[in-house]
Structure to design on (282 residues):
């Protein structure tokens, strides 16, 4: 290796690490700013910049006010009910559909797969007029069960994840089970579903994050903000035409992040294994 090649090589390494440090800093900066702002009083926030440290890190007033005034206790309860219900139904429906589409060859199988793919190309916002009409006709507006049913709509991406994992599971397992007298439901429930654990973890991460952070549909269909708040909509309590209380908003954001952080810490091994499983096919 010539001197010029060594210079280029080391320069590339330096640029690589500098870019990693820069983008890491850009990703962490908003979080640091949010934490600093959450501990400031209203007067401190008005008279200092966002990166000025608060006078006291031991003042929980902002967090107590955010939790109480935004009704975050009920918001967490509603979001938990929605999240658990949506994930359970989505997993059962998605894995069942993927099982049928992968294991059974029938006329229209390819058409159904193509229709699912076509559905992903339609922008969700463009369908809201039709969806709102359906929700209104079924009296699902201001109804938590109605909102859950709407959010349980078929998750196309998850179905394709399940189908890919089914393709990596040998059909001989099904054939051996059939010879032993197992029904199709038993094969799905007892044999194949446990093998889909990595795919289920991946799909639940994607669906769970989207459901937990959903604001547009929650704000549109759960209009009673006192009885039916979610974590996402409760944070907008402090936003108004006369100004926004960003210190309370940041405190509410940190509170809303805590459950996700706890779940990640407790299940990080399963999350990492679920996201990396299937990356190597065969």
């Amino acid at each position: 290796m010539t001197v010029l090649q060594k210079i280029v090589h080391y320069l590339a390494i330096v640029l690589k690490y500098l870019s990693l440090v820069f983008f890491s800093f850009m990703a962490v900066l908003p979080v640091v700013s949010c934490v600093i702002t959450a501990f400031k009083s209203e007067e401190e926030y008005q008279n200092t910049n966002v990166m000025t440290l608060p006078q006291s890190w031991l003042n929980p007033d902002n967090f107590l006010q955010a939790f109480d005034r935004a009704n975050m206790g009920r918001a967490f309860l509603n979001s938990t009910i929605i999240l658990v219900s949506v994930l359970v139904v989505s997993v059962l429906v998605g894995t069942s559909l993927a099982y049928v589409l992968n294991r059974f060859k029938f006329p229209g199988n390819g058409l159904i797969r193509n229709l699912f793919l076509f559905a992903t190309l339609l922008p969700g916002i463009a369908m809201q007029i039709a969806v709102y009409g359906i929700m209104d006709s079924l009296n699902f507006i201001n109804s938590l069960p109605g909102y859950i049913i709407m959010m349980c709509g078929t998750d196309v991406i998850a179905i394709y994840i399940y189908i890919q994992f089914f393709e990596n599971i040998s059909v001989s397992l099904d054939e051996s089970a059939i010879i032993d007298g197992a029904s199709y439901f038993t094969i799905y429930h007892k044999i194949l579903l446990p093998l889909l654990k990595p795919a289920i973890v991946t799909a639940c991460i994607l669906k769970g994050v989207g459901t937990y952070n959903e604001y547009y549909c929650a704000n549109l269909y759960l209009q009673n903000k006192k009885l039916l708040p979610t974590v996402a909509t409760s944070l907008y309590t402090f936003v108004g035409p006369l100004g926004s209380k960003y210190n309370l908003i940041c405190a509410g954001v940190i509170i809303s992040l805590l459950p996700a952080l706890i779940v990640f810490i407790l299940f990080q091994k399963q999350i990492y294994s679920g996201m990396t499983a299937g990356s190597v096919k065969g």
In short: The chain is about 70% helix and 0% strand. The radius of gyration is 24 Å. The beta strands are 239-240, 243-244.
